[in-house]
């Protein structure tokens, strides 16, 4: 059904229940997606030299690039890409060998580099750059290039984070229903 899923060295992407993968994206190698995740047009995700894990109800928006860093003698684990549950990743973001917690909103065009950690309950502003190894503390808005902590999130923003993920679960369900009728 999904021609956009490709094996690398015998390992193919694994999908949880009710996952939506757009035909116009490419997922290669050691990638696992949790239940109700969605991957939209023109996403490129390569789990070739390390692995990618994407949590439940997480949405990867159009044009996003997901990649990893190779394991080496100096860094035996390399840098896999780990994305938690209820994460909304905006259009044209780039995530490379980083860790993203749960209930995170990553703005359009944001870049997160090797070894960076975005803790739970964070909003990362559009166009922000998270340098290698930087840790973003839970409960804050971060903006800029390089990123800086701007302010604590409001109660309304914290409540919006799981709602944002749910909005994309609803949308991907509509896409799945439409494709079943075609």
UniProtKB/TrEMBL annotation:
InterPro entries, A to Z: Hexapep, LbH_gamma_CA-like, Transf_Hexapept/Carb_Anhydrase, Trimer_LpxA-like_sf
Protein name: Gamma carbonic anhydrase family protein
UniProt organism field: Shewanella cyperi
Family matches, as CDD domains: LbH_gamma_CA_like (cd04645)
Transmembrane region(s): none
């Amino acid at each position: 059904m999904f021609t956009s899923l490709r094996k690398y060295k015998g390992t193919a992407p694994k999908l949880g229940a009710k996952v939506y993968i757009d035909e116009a994206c490419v997922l290669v190698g050691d990638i696992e997606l949790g239940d109700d995740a969605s991957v939209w047009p023109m996403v490129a995700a390569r789990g070739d030299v390390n692995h990618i894990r994407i949590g439940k109800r997480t949405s990867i928006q159009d044009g996003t690039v997901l990649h990893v860093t190779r394991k080496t003698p100096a860094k035996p684990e390399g840098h896999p890409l780990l994305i938690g549950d209820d994460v909304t990743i905006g259009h044209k973001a780039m995530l490379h060998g980083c860790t993203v917690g749960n209930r995170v909103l990553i703005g359009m065009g944001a870049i997160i580099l090797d070894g960076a950690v975005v803790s739970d309950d964070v909003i990362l502003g559009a166009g922000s750059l998270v340098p290698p190894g930087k840790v973003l503390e839970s409960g804050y808005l971060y903006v800029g290039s390089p990123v800086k902590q701007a302010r604590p999130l409001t109660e309304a923003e914290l409540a919006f984070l799981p709602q944002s993920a749910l909005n994309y679960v609803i949308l991907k369900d509509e896409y799945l229903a439409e494709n079943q009728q075609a």
